[in-house]
Amino acid sequence: MRYPVAVLLAVLCGRCGSGTPESAPKPASATKNEPAKITQFYATDTKLPKGVKGTLCYGVEHAAKVQLAPPVEEVWPSPTRCFEIAPKENTRYTLTAIGADGSKDTQTVEVTIGAAIPRLYDLSVNSQLVNAGDQVVVCFKVENATSVKAGPGHFDPEANCITDRPTQTTSYKISALGADGQADSGTVKVMVR
Q1: pTM across the whole model
Q2: What is the DSSP letter of 15?
Q3: At 19, is the pLDDT very low, low, confident or very high (cuts 50, 70, 90)?
Q4: CA distance linking residue 104 with residue 37, whole number of Å
Q5: How far apart are CA 40 and CA 107, in angstroms?
Q6: What fold is seen in the domain 119-192?
Q7: What ranges in 15-94 are assigned the alpha helix state H?
């Protein structure tokens, strides 16, 4: 295969000389002697319900090394990175970026733990199709709730059951409220013939 003379000269002259051409990019460490800098450090939620996982994110520039206290996961210099956290108590996270020149940048984020989220589960009904006036019993289980509302019908908070004798198709709604205002709810529909 034949190449044009200009191409051959460009390839050969590219190897001429002892230095790097001025237009060629230099490695970041060779061109920049800038101090390490944290560009971002945050928790996606600074208040987590007890038992719920969160996310911690960071980004750094000009860092040779990154440290996190308390240690949660291995960290390294990155312009942007996120990972999961699962604190059991209020925790202050401290990120330190260390530059090759010995410079340091430090930031902190505090994550507080709130009340556990209420959970409503095991909703059951004795029958989803009844005659008008037949007894219907809707029962459920709940945890982490400070209050529960259920109806229509008679709600027994000791047994977590609603008892009713509907004359028309009825939806029974249960709402559980948590200490920090979170809620969980469920509905059971009973058809009346």
Answers
A1: 0.66
A2: T
A3: very low
A4: 7
A5: 9
A6: Immunoglobulin-like (2.60.40)
A7: 28-31
Paired tokens of 165: 């004798």
Coil, strand or helix at 11: helix
| Identical fold between 31-114 and 119-192 | yes
Phi and psi, residue 75, nearest 5°: -120, 155
Instruction: Find where tokens 């003379």 sit.
Output: 5
Residues 178 and 144: their CA atoms lie apart, in Å, by 6
Q: In this predicted model, what pLDDT tens digit does every residue of 107-145 receive, in sequence order?
A: 999 999 999 999 999 999 999 999 999 999 999 999 999
Q: In 140-153, which positions are buried (b, 16+ CB within 10 angstroms) versus exposed (e)?
A: bebebbeebebeeb
Q: What does the mean pLDDT of the chain come to?
A: 87
Residue % of the chain over a pLDDT of 90: 83
Over 80: is that where the pLDDT of 86 sits? yes
- Collapsing DSSP to helix, strand or coil, 9 comes out as helix
Per-residue tokens: 49: 């319900």
Delimit the domains of the chain by residue range.
31-114, 119-192
Question: How much is the pLDDT for 33?
Answer: 78
Helix extents (H) in 15-81: 28-31
Beta bridge partners, 149, equal 175
DSSP 8-class letter at 133: T
The domain at 31-114 falls in which architecture?
Answer: Sandwich (2.60)
